[in-house]
Amino acid sequence: MTTFQPDVQPGQAPPPDSVHPRESSQAAPTSVSRLNETIRGFVEKWGSVWVEGEVTSWNVRGGNVFGRLKDGSSDATISFRIWSSTRQRLPEDLKVGDHVVTCVKADYFVKTGDFTFAVSAMRHVGLGDQLEKLEKLRVQLRGEGLFDAARKKPLPFLPQVIGLITGEKSDAEKDVHRNAELRWPQVRFRTAYAAVQGDRCVPETIGALKALDADPEVDVIVIARGGGDPQTLLGFSDERLLRAVAAASTPVVSAIGHENDHPLLDDVADLRASTPTDAAKRVVPDVAEQRALVGQLRSRLTMRLTHRVTHDIAQLEQLRSRPALRAPESMLDARAQQLWLLVARGRDIIDRRLDVQTRRTGELRATLRALSPASTLARGYAIAHMPGGVIVRDATQAPAGTPLIVTVGRGSLAARSEGELLESASGPDDGSPQDSAATGATGSPL
User: Fold this and answer.
1) 283-308: pLDDT as tens digits
2) Distance of alpha carbon 239 from alpha carbon 20, whole angstroms
3) Could you give the CA distance from residue 416 to residue 254 in angstroms, rounded to a whole number?
4) Which end of the chain is more exposed for a tag (fewer CB within 10 A), N or C?
5) pTM, entire model
6) Are 118 and 81 in contact (CB under 8 A)?
């Protein structure tokens, strides 16, 4: 960094209105205004100088820019101011994190006693080291999937206990408590204090996160911090903290800084809130809104039920007005007459068919009886057959002494043949059947 010296040389007399230490005392002190005028007199004699550094703050107010420039090898910083007329000549893409070289001239405000540097020129040197590291880490974590929406856990609708990680007695803590309790008075907090900047920020925040994540009563964890320049918010882009948040089983809400602040914690957390106040509104539902919603839903339900019941009553009345339902017995009477006629017709048909089949059965029975051998036997005829069952049709089949079985109309008897009778060999002339084997046979009934 280029150094500069005031234009006043050693041994040179100070301006007439300057204050010399010997000219003031406890009994005769100088005024603040005179002291500031003396300081401005010395500062105005300093020339412009080119310096190199990283832009860590860039706030635009009324067209003017107020920011800070950090040394690349140490924590030394200076504040600078860019008037709107000068800003028109500078690159439009200047922002926080840019590595720049700028021409500055010291400026001292007499009214407030503030010391700053007025910028007359500024140009890019390259991406700041810190921004470059953060960008590389952002690309790495995105490649690992830590920014994916699929891995983000949903927040509970109404958390019973909210874990809060913030600085002790900080405005962020007050904002979260006040806005959450206004929306839902019964909400409870379990607060773990941690440093929100500096070397202790990351380890203390990780410790508080692990403690709250292990608590089974904590439903959601909010990491909150007020605004600040990017240099003070670097702890919330630390890789150790980001991986701890990604590994937590409890949903984590990031509420760091203001709307324009965007540490990497916002991308890894399950939900990003622009401010601590916004975190309270996103985590806790509004009891008044929920009551109004319940009332609206009840009203809609009542209206729909009333409409449905009214519609069903109208349909029922319409059905009851139809003739079939107004006098249902008439429909039954008509069907009963038709049913009686069908039953009578069916009975008549069945009776006629029974008569026909009865006659048919009698005829078949008479035919069967006429053809049956039993009818012939009943008229006095007999059948002679040998014990083997062979019917004797010729007298020569049963020589004398042949045992026979003679079947008559009622029963059978045993007989024995006495031989063929010669006088009956030709048979009787009247044509009536005669069993030659039975003629002259003797025997006894079986």
Assistant:
1) 999 888 888 999 999 999 999 999 99
2) 54
3) 132
4) C
5) 0.47
6) yes
